[in-house]
Write a structure and sequence with these properties.
Chain lengths: 215, 216, 239
């Protein structure tokens, strides 16, 4: 099952590359560098999906105390943090040639950075508690706080920086994006989502193996 | 619970005394770091005020569960039958009283030393401070209990707390800024709503999960 | 003897990280019975007590008190349980009476001043009722934590080294209280290192070694030397 997921995500990534570099047109003003969007944007979507999965798994763990739910929450938050890191890194690489700077304190960047730091703290907490059960319980509570905090962070940061541009896809009304670009974006999103799921599954299995080795 | 904590604090006065001196020291640091330029000071004042509140809050909250460690009282809290969320509320109430005292003093110091014109802004400001403080204390109490048993506790607590508090910090600073410019309360209604929402979320999580934290 | 033992532990396993501290422990304590739990450091005595006390969850197996599960019905178990562990559960900056009042109020138990003073008198701390615990000696603190138990009137007592730090007088008093507790139909489980006085109260001896129950035998007819011999035989064997 996991192996199948791995192969599927591999296929998806190939398709994503073809779509991103072959099918999608070259952007007029930015040139080829704009193609980094096909990695940049799906990465943040997958990250937030992973955090949602971690949130559900955390609640499930606190309610039922199945170790599997704890491992899933751990793996999902770790993979989510990884994808968010990819998003931030690609954003910086994209930002340098187009905006002339690696980083600006604009609303979207800032809120993503805050969420990133929140989940880094989550991983830190897991490492800082020796008792395994306790680490799981506390991390679950922190995961719930952090996930519910994401909308609060977004709202507050957007209001703080009023010079925001609305997100390009989730805007009410029709999308301004040419459909071929949108298709390329969605193909890459599907590929990265499969890859994220594959990572989470592998990571959870690794955590299980670690626990078994210790027990 | 709050009764007990405040009694302990009144007897020892450890935390309160230290925090009061801390806010005084902070005042000097701000002054020296920014120089005597009135206008520059006025522009950053709301930020400084909340930085002071949050720093003193972090220091105070971080100590909230220390008293439960002597003689294993932590264990006894868990062993006492009854709803564990009452313990959370008691701890929270105790911390709120402590923070309110420190914040009142700090605000007074700011008014005197930085020439802040409060005027009619005080009721609105009090509301913002109340909402912000509840948010800080609600999530701070929860995290203080979580980090009480961790390695590098003093470091881990602010590392967990500060990123989570970003919405509260932004909301309170922006609202304070507007109120000090004597804008009506209605102008910051969206911030007040955000702060209230944050308070509700943090309090709800605290109440629902505190027994899980306490458990051995 | 009642049909269902007040404390029943079955197949208890507890893993801490890489260590299997308890490895399938079974133990019953009936009403009116006292069991002394012996074992070397790290044999799992405290872990076993903590699981029965609802302070720890078992990795596998179950523990019940009065027929109630220590995980699922933890709150109900806590209501009939009295625990004295290593910590004395007292706040240094409160007086003796304030300490008692706090724990009673937190547990939602009514306790007026007379009851508090009565409990303090019982452990001979009435003259120190308004002094801060900070000034108390180790024995006085332990007596204060025992005073708490006289107020909550538990049906099951879990004691970890109950006689440690007590002087002769207090030992004698505690012994009397424990005997009275037993004859009122209470169940008593205590962990200990010594083979002296505590064993006088015990009806059965249970020796833990390496996370397993090495021996579970009636105490009647065993003198301290016998116990010492059994203890050495069963703890050496495993380690």
């Amino acid at each position: 099952m996991t192996t199948l997921l791995g192969w599927l995500s591999g296929l998806g990534l190939v398709a994503g590359l073809v779509m991103g570099f072959g099918v999608a047109p070259r952007e007029v003003t930015q040139g080829n560098v704009q193609r980094i969007m096909y990695l940049h944007v799906p990465a943040v979507w997958v990250a937030y999906l992973a955090f949602m999965a971690g949130f559900v798994a955390s609640i499930a763990y606190l309610a039922r105390r199945r170790p599997g739910a704890d491992r899933l929450a751990h793996a999902a938050c770790e993979v989510g943090t990884l994808f968010l890191g990819v998003n931030i890194a690609t954003g910086a690489i994209w930002g340098k040639p187009t905006w002339g700077t690696w980083w600006t304190w604009d609303a979207r960047l800032t809120s993503v950075a805050v969420v990133f730091v929140m989940f880094l703290a989550y991983l830190l907490l897991r490492g800082a508690i020796d008792d395994h059960d306790r680490a799981g319980r506390y991390a679950a509570v922190l995961g719930i706080v952090a996930t519910l905090n994401i909308p609060l962070v977004h709202f507050s940061v957007y209001w703080w920086r009023t010079l925001h541009q609305p997100p390009s896809l989730l805007k009410p009304g029709s999308s301004t994006m040419p459909s071929v670009i949108l298709t390329a974006l969605l193909v890459n999103f599907a590929a990265l989502a499969l890859l994220g799921a594959y990572f989470i599954a592998r990571r959870a299995r690794l955590l299980a193996a670690e626990e078994e080795a210790l027990a | 619970m709050a009764w007990k904590d405040l009694l302990v604090e009144r007897r020892s006065k450890e935390t309160l005394n230290a925090l009061l001196f801390f806010s005084l020291a902070l005042l000097f640091v701000f002054q020296f770091a920014l120089g005597p330029d009135r206008e520059r000071l006025a522009a950053v004042l709301p930020g400084l005020l909340w930085l002071g509140f949050i720093l003193s809050g972090v220091l105070g909250l971080g100590r909230a569960f220390l008293v439960e460690h002597q003689n294993d009282c932590w264990e006894a809290l868990l062993l006492t039958p009854g709803d564990k969320s009452a313990i959370y509320l008691g701890k929270l109430a105790g911390s709120l009283v402590l923070m309110a005292v420190v914040e009142t003093l700090m605000l007074a110091l700011f008014v005197v030393f930085f020439n802040v014109e409060l005027g009619g802004a005080l009721p609105g400001l009090a509301l913002v401070i109340a909402l912000g403080t509840i948010g800080i204390a609600a999530v701070g109490t929860l995290f203080a209990a979580m980090t009480a048993q961790a390695r590098a506790r003093e470091l881990l607590f602010p590392v967990l707390l500060l990123p989570v508090l970003v919405p509260v910090l932004l909301g309170t600073v922006k609202a304070t800024e507007a109120l000090l410019l004597h804008e009506p309360l209605a102008a910051v209604a969206h911030w007040l709503k955000l702060l209230a929402a944050a308070d509700v979320v943090y309090l709800a999580i605290g109440l629902l999960t505190f027994d899980v934290i306490l458990e051995g | 003897m009642v049909a269902v033992p007040l404390v029943r532990v079955t197949g208890l396993v507890r893993v801490f990280g890489a260590q299997r501290v308890l490895d399938g422990v079974n133990l019953d304590v009936a009403a009116g019975e006292a069991v002394a739990l012996l074992g070397a450091n790290g044999a799992g005595k405290t872990t076993l007590l903590k699981i029965v006390a609802t302070l720890l969850r078992p990795t596998r197996g179950t523990a019940t008190v009065g027929g109630l599960d220590c995980v699922r019905d933890a709150e109900s178990v806590r209501a009939i349980l009295g625990v004295v562990a290593h910590g004395t559960y007292v706040y240094e900056d409160l007086t003796a009476r304030e300490n008692l009042a706090f724990w009673m109020r937190l547990g939602g138990r009514a306790a007026d001043r007379d009851m508090l003073d009565g409990a303090l008198a019982e452990v001979e701390l009435e003259r120190h009722a308004d002094e801060r615990v900070r000034t108390f000696s180790a024995g006085m603190r332990r007596r204060l934590s025992l005073a708490r138990l006289t107020l909550t009137r538990p049906r099951v007592l879990l004691l970890d080294e109950p006689f440690a730090g007590l002087d002769q007088r207090a030992r004698k008093w505690l012994e009397g209280r424990l005997e009275a507790f037993k004859s009122d139909g209470g169940a008593l489980l205590m962990a200990t290192h010594s083979f002296g006085r505590e064993l006088g109260v015990a009806d059965r001896l249970a020796i833990l070694a390496g996370g397993r129950m090495a021996l579970d035998t009636p105490r009647a007819g065993l003198d301290p030397q016998d116990v010492q011999r059994l203890y050495v035989a069963h703890t050496e064997e495993v380690s």
